[in-house]
Amino acid sequence: MTHLIIKNGFVYDPLNGINGEKMDIFTSNGRIVEKVAEKEAKVIDASGMIVMPGGVDIHCHIAGAEVNSGRLLRPEDHVKDVEVKTRLTRSGVGYSIPSTFTTGYRYSRMGYTTIMNPSMPPLEARHTHEELDDTPMLDKASYPLLGDWWFVLEHLRDGLLEECAAHVAWIMNATKGYAIKIVNPGGLEAWSSGRNMRDIDDSVPYFNITPREIIRGLCKVNKLLNLPHTIHVHTNNLGKPGNYVTALETMKCVEDLAEGDRPVIHVTHSQFSSYKGSDWRTMSSGAEEVAKYVNHHSHVTLDVGQVIFTDTTTMTADGPFQHRLYLMTGNKWVNHDVETETTAGIVPFRYRRKSAVHATQWSIGLELALLIKDPWKICMTTDHPNGGPFTAYPSIIAWFMSQVARKKTMMKISKRARRNSLLPSIDREYSFYEIATITRAGQAKILGLKQKGHLGVGADADIAIYDVNPEQVDPSRKYKTVRRAFRKAAYTIKGGEVVVKDGQIVKPVYGKTFWLDVKTSLPMEVNDDLKQKFRDYWTIEYENYAIPERFLHASAPISIKAEV
Amino acid sequence: MKNNIIVKVKNACAVGEAKFLNYALHRQTKPLIRKNGELVETSLEEAIQRGAEILANAQYPILYGWSNTSCEAIRVGVELAEEVGGVIDNTSTVCHGPSILSIQDIGISSCTLGQLRHRADLIFYWGSNPWSAHPRHIDRYTTFSEGRFQRSAWRGYLSRLTGTLARKRLGRAIDLVLGRQILSPPETEFRLPPTLFQNKRKMIVVDVRKTRSAEIADYFLQIQPNKDYELLQALRLLIRDEELDVDEVAGIPVEILEEIVDIMIGCKLGILFFGLGLTMSQGKLRNIDAALSLVRDLNQRTKFLIMPMRGHFNVTGANVVFTWQTGYPYAIDFSHGYPRYNPGETSVTDILRRGESDAGLVVASDPVAHFPNAAAQNLVKNPLVVIDPQATPTSIMADVVIPSAFVGIEVEGTAYRMDHVPLPLKKVVEPPETCLSDKEILQRILVEVRRLRSEHN
Questions:
Q1: Which of A77, A81, A127 would you mutate first to test chain B, the one with the most B CBs within 10 A?
Q2: Statement: residue B340 has pLDDT above 80
Q3: Residue A337 forms contact with B (CB below 8 Å)
Q4: What's residue A1's pLDDT?
Q5: Inter-chain touch B319–A338, beta carbons under 8 Å
Q6: Contact check, Cβ <8 Å, A126/B422
Q7: Distance in angstroms (rounded) separating the CA atoms of residues A192 and B200
């Protein structure tokens, strides 16, 4: 029986419309409650501090085969940033691809409590979950890569939507996944034979289907299955000048599938899909066009994928993109194709201030966040570690909240990028309320996580307290104070327990792993034919493909009733 | 299965079958402890207690092995190494360690095995002999497997075989009729067979001697020993359309190499498997550097992949678990309180050769039989704890022996295939009562070590 009272903090809880009110928050047994008796509770004095729901990250590569290959590839990244073992915590290394324990601690120190690992090859899901189990302090979930899964390609090509839905429902259970991830639809299958997709109407070799059909098909499947999150799409042509057109077409292609205001597509790390120009010399920002479209449509949500000027490691399931990046940089390159499902690539990369392209990328991320008017439509991410490590979030918050902070960085970037940037013409500055939206409330809402991202009665008692007084500190001018506060949470409370105090781990905890237990009226039929198909398509048996629930350290299934 | 004993094995290769049928031979099931120079039977509690004392009192212990146990056990192993501030290392240090160093320099273009079954039409085995070492590799994943876009080359092989036999018989008959002296055909024949130019699956073996795998290949490239590096670099040059000013490289005429390069560039999807013949011959990691670079370069012309042929069943798992917990795949030193990695300095063989460690824990491995003499001597000079289901030369030399249950036969677990695909290992029979799993034994040692250390402080 643990009760907690957080007194006198300035509470920012956008999902419940609370904007900086001074109030008390009560928790009991891991949940937010109406009230608890003060005698029985531990009291935290939060006066002069900001109280927010625990941070949520919709898209960060922190576990699994591809992340681990990245770790293996970069001893030079680890050696400069180490975590020493303490009485409570395990040791580890950073920087751009931290070891699992370090990842958990660092997120928690910044007040984050829930994170989503966005790319899990179904065949290697077991690996992802082993790593997630070794990532402490956080609740987590993972998205299986389904855009190039042969069952999906075949069923959609044949117009068998309900069979496709049954297979997707099965894979969520089998891989303990949370949402449908689509990466460069069709392009990964093509990359298996060394090719790529030119646009969303190109044809996938051997399968006679187009990316448009894959996106639309899976979008419909997503609706049929009532999944809490939308399809999570990494667009075709990512990281190519002129690709904002592809991004717009991708969003447009599901426009007619929307009902009411509910989003049906999430375009992830959209910064990497918002480039204008015909080559890298003429590359410029397409943020205005993308933002304009998003402002006028309610069926789409985005996350930023902000670029940080640092040395990082890019890793995506987009094999052809990574190969292009290797050709461009000449850096070391890892490619890993997964049979019947997906590909992956890794290339170390440094974003330089003085590079016109890199600086424009930096600018595009901020332009998107500032030009999209509704903060509920956009999430703050770096696509960790692709744009930069997640530990840079406080710097991004400072750029969002302060024109001065932006100007200061602008002074140091490439002249050409500065000249072309839209940023000087934008005077918008985020408020703490909006920051709470794009870093937790909006993310939880887009993910459909009802227990997270807010402080209403019944929510999980995941709370972050930051030592900054919104009445005294003007974030526009004192952005450094704000940045410092967000770097080290005064308190992080996970499941009603204080786990971080003054930026130090005081109690290591395990987090839960969410996954979808989708109930369809006609489940995928498991017969000898299907088992034979598994034998033909993969090199492992059907029985070894699925992960039993007991394999997860702390399994938290979410029951979903599908429409089919 | 009969009375908790395995009597028949289905679906396994010869190596696998032998493992399942013979695992219980030469087995010691009771814990042993060395008293007055003799190994005597003892209780599990005492063995764990003694083992924990050895580790807790050591200044710089080494924890070695790990490639023949489950990932679950390895996870506890890393925690134990961190707790005692020791060095943890796995068998890749004497196996594919150079390959890993090269990957860290160059990267690697690789895949899972099914990708090859479906698509590979050009298969290279370089310094590896899968027919003998990985008996089902060729028919499950490569040349003789049925994929979606590539058919098995089995029929081609059969007709080639019958053709060769018929030719031999015919030649012999003619020899007999003409009364010529019977001579075996010349061994080094450089002419490329016509099958290599057909639009079909083909297999090329590169080795210094004619192995069983070479016999079934479409073409066998017999190269001079320790010339792999030259040959790989020559191929890289040829891929860039450069002219070579020599007549032959590694004993192979340049004209043949040019044709091979054309075949490589012309394939739909090529794969190069390499074994210890490349990793551990002269040049070591530089050989792998060249091989990885060759494949990387080929990707500008076609699709090409490369994969090391690994040995122990979970050596990949050991690398994978070490990497996610510490950032590094092997040779990790925790003596500073954080993971440090510098193979050559922090690798177990080098530490042992320099005589720096003062205690050892060996899990599921046999370093006494496989390490260089000087290293093995230093290993047994210091207190040594062995956790292994089998009696080995190392366990005979140990101070504490804790027999464990066989992973994949007597206990469950997770292991990684050589292409990084995680697989569940099942429990088939009950373990002997005195044998716990590696994971449980390590957990109990860890608890005991923590208790001893907190008493000490």
A1: A127
A2: yes
A3: yes
A4: 57
A5: no
A6: yes
A7: 18
Q: What is the pLDDT of residues A41-66, one digit of tens each?
A: 999 999 999 999 999 999 999 999 99
Q: Return the half-sphere exposure (C-beta side, CA atoms, 13 A cut-off) of residue A313.
A: 28
Q: How many residues does chain B have?
A: 457
| Binary contact (A78, B305; C-beta < 8 A) | no
Provide the residue count of chain A: 564
Q: What are the residue boundaries of the structural domains of chain A, listed by start?
A: 3-53+458-505
Per CB-CB distance under 8 Å, the chain B contacts of A332 are 104-107
| B426: contact with A, CB 8 A cutoff | no
Q: Which fold has domain B98-308?
A: Dimethylsulfoxide Reductase; domain 2 (3.40.228)
Contact B107 A333 (CB under 8 A): yes
- Give the DSSP per-residue string, A360-394: HHHHHHHHHHHH---GGGEE---TTTTSS-GGGHH
How close, in Å, is residue A67 to chain B by CA atoms?
Answer: 9
Which helix H or strand E contains B375, and what residues bound it? helix B373-381
Task: Tell me the percentage of chain A whose pLDDT exceeds 90.
Answer: 96
A487-520: pLDDT as tens digits: 999 999 999 999 999 999 999 999 999 999 999 9
Measuring CA to CA, how many Å separate B272 from each of B76, B116, B298, B373? 35, 11, 11, 34
Full DSSP string of A164-219: HHHHHHHHHHHHT--S-EEESTTHHHHHTTT---SSTT---TTT---HHHHHHHHH
Per-residue DSSP letters for B54-87?
HHHH-SSEEEEE-TTS-HHHHHHHHHHHHHHT-E
Q: How far is A185 from chain B (nearest CA, A)?
A: 18
Question: Do the Cβ atoms of A339 and B424 come within 8 Å?
Answer: no
**CA nearest neighbour of A88 among A497, A487, A509, A502:** A509
Q: Which of A227, A210, A231 is closest to A219 using CA atoms?
A: A231
Domain boundaries, chain B: 14-95+313-456, 98-308
Instruction: Output the pTM of the full model.
Output: 0.95
Please answer whether residues B300 and B400 qualify as being in contact, where contact means their C-beta atoms are separated by less than 8 angstroms. Answer: no
Q: Is the ipTM of this complex over 0.85?
A: yes
**Of A313, A123, A101, A189, which is closest to residue B420 (Cα–Cα)?**
A123
CATH match for B14-95+313-456 among 3.20.20.70, 3.40.50.2300, 3.40.50.740, 3.30.70.20: 3.40.50.740
- CA A345, A349, A353, A357 torsion: positive or negative? negative
What does the alpha-carbon distance between residue B411 and residue B429 come to, in Å, rounded to a whole number? Answer: 8
| Probe site for chain B from A89, A91, A343, A545 (most B CB atoms < 10 A) | A91
Q: Which of residues 441-470 of A touch B (CB under 8 A)?
A: none
Asked if A63 reaches chain B (Cβ–Cβ under 8 Å), the answer is yes
Contact, B102 vs B288, CB < 8 A?
A: yes
Report B:336-375 residues touching A (Cβ under 8 A). Answer: 336-339, 341
Closest partner residue to B296 among A130, A333, A537, by Cβ?
Answer: A333
Q: Do A335 and B299 touch (CB under 8 A)?
A: yes
CATH architecture of A3-53+458-505: Roll (2.30)
Instruction: Provide the chain A residues 303-322 that lie in CB contact (below 8 A) with chain B.
Output: none
A333 interfacial to chain B (CB closer than 8 Å): yes
- Please check whether residue A365 is in contact with residue A400, taking contact to mean a CB–CB distance below 8 angstroms: no
Is the separation of the CB atoms in A27 and A42 below 8 Å?
Answer: no
Nearest-neighbour CA in chain A from B113: distance (Å): 7
Of B112, B329, B414, the CB nearest to A126: B414
Do B320 and A127 count as a contact with CB atoms less than 8 A apart?
Answer: yes
Phi, psi of B412 (to 5 degrees): -80, 175
User: A323-355: per-residue pLDDT in tens?
Assistant: 999 999 999 999 999 999 999 999 999 999 999
